[in-house]
Write a structure and sequence with these properties.
The protein is mostly beta strands and 127 residues long. The protein is built from no helices and eleven strands. The model has no long low-confidence stretch (mean pLDDT 97).
Length: 127
Amino acid sequence: QVQLVESGGGSVQAGGSLTLSCAVSIPATSTYSEYSMGWFRQAPGKEREGVSCISWSGGTTAYADSVKGRFTISRDSAKNMLYLQMNSLKPEDTAMYYCAAKAAPRCELGEYVYNYWGQGTQVTVSS
């Protein structure tokens, strides 16, 4: 069973930065490099949306238009970690952020293709 644990959320003023981390536990029968990963967020009263994704090789990334140029996704295969560097944060970035994994190569922003989810970490950006 794949387990995901997010950390790094918090409260920050607009214009600030945060780095989210996701620790990924993989069954002994597979490896982290067999999973593509994504970051999603859900604000109160809104649907969950894809923020960023990264392919299982790390060679392909994608971002929602709302975060392009401000957020950077990365993965460390040696440590089984996923990161989301968030710069120039805006109040509209306030949400619960989730990491997700799927045993497939492609980077995809659609939530329904992901099989495994973390419990989330809260990001609050004040103006």
